[in-house]
């Protein structure tokens, strides 16, 4: 009995898990992004540099078609990008949403943080800002995205994210008009588990400085102008160098309502280990949306890390990448969803 109590006490003081700094952790098996961020840290770059370069690598490689140009066309066939980056030392944030014509969304997000007093720029104005900052305007459309869009049109615009409109959105394309009476949804509509896989990344250096960031092209066939959780501070990602960081991925329209990344960091501040903090953040959403698709990664300033995900059909395990001084090379990790 005494030994059990002692072990429990030690577990509270020194949570189980991997501990070593520096650390890079990111959502999904985006190994090259992890490597880019880790190499940046090892070369003496800052945690902000690491997050920016890691996410930018995914933007250029069009990770899983869900990050960067040429993926997730909206209802009008256009690809738009969302991204954010957060400095855990100063609590400064830069973010862009509905960004058009610019491939390097995470770079523009950092420019918002470093060259304005603002936090978030959106739409056409964000693109003009980016061009003024020296980013190159390019067409984000590719043959692949054109094909995705044309197939969607041929299939009567299915799936889409409209409700309480006519013509019937489950059978027809728009333009849509609102119905006179709004019916309450009997059941929430859930995002396809393959329709979006944001990259979310957390980086910590040897001194415990923390940065976090995200980049995505959003939800395939979204209503133009839609912004998900990725560029929203506390939802897509959060960092505080006094505690650690977190980053989320999944159904952004649901997850944005619960600020899971902020919640996870606050739970770690209160003493929860990263795995428990991640699980609690997912549990909070599950109470209201039991079948939502989502996952979160968490890391604290001692180098411990964890992840959690909600179990839904076709999504029983969440894969993520880790690089730290124990491995010195990106390692694929997984966690069973609950």
TrEMBL record:
Pfam families: Asparaginase_2. One of its GO terms (molecular function) is peptidase activity. GO terms for cellular component: lysosome. It is an enzyme of class 3 (hydrolase). The active site is at residue 198. InterPro entries: Ntn_hydrolases_N, Peptidase_T2. Residues 1-19 form the signal peptide. Transmembrane segments: none annotated. The record marks 197-198 as: Cleavage. Keywords: Autocatalytic cleavage, Hydrolase, Protease, Signal. GO terms for biological process: proteolysis. It comes from the Eukaryota. Its EC number is 3.5.1.26. It catalyses: N(4)-(beta-N-acetyl-D-glucosaminyl)-L-asparagine + H2O = N-acetyl-beta-D-glucosaminylamine + L-aspartate + H(+). The keyword ATP-binding does not apply. Substrate binds at residues 226-229, 249-252. Belongs to the Ntn-hydrolase family. Cleaves the GlcNAc-Asn bond which joins oligosaccharides to the peptide of asparagine-linked glycoproteins. This is N(4)-(Beta-N-acetylglucosaminyl)-L-asparaginase. It comes from Amphiprion percula (Orange clownfish).
């Amino acid at each position: 009995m005494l030994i059990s109590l002692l072990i429990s006490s030690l577990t509270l003081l020194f949570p189980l898990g991997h501990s070593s700094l520096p650390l890079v952790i990111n959502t999904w098996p985006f190994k090259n992004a992890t490597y880019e961020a880790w190499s940046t840290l090892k070369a003496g770059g800052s945690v902000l540099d690491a997050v920016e370069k890691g996410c930018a690598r995914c933007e250029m490689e069009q990770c899983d078609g869900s990050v960067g140009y040429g993926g997730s066309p909206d209802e009008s066939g256009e690809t738009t990008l969302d991204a954010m980056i957060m400095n855990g030392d100063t609590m400064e944030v830069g973010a862009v949403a509905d960004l058009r014509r610019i491939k390097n969304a995470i770079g523009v997000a950092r420019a918002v943080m470093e060259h304005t007093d603002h936090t978030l720029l959106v739409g056409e104005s964000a693109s003009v800002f980016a061009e003024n900052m020296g980013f190159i305007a390019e067409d984000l459309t590719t043959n692949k995205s054109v094909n995705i869009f044309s197939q969607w049109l041929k299939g009567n615009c299915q799936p889409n994210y409209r409700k309480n409109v006519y013509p019937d959105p489950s059978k027809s394309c728009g333009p849509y008009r609102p119905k006179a009476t709004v019916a309450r949804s009997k059941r929430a509509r859930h995002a396809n588990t393959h329709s979006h896989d944001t990259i979310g990344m957390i980086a910590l250096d040897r001194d415990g400085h923390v940065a976090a960031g995200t980049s995505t092209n959003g939800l395939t066939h979204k209503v133009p102008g839609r912004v998900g959780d990725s560029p929203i501070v506390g939802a897509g990602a959060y960092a505080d160098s006094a505690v650690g960081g977190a980053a989320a991925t999944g159904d952004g329209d649901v997850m944005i309502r619960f600020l899971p990344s902020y919640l996870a960091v606050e739970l770690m501040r209160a003493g929860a280990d990263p795995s428990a903090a991640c699980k609690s953040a997912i549990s909070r959403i599950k109470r209201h949306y039991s079948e939502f698709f989502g996952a979160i990664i968490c890391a604290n300033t001692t180098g411990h890390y964890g992840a959690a995900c909600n179990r839904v059909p076709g999504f029983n395990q969440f894969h993520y990448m880790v690089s730290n001084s124990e491995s010195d090379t990106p390692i694929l990790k997984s966690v069973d969803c609950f």
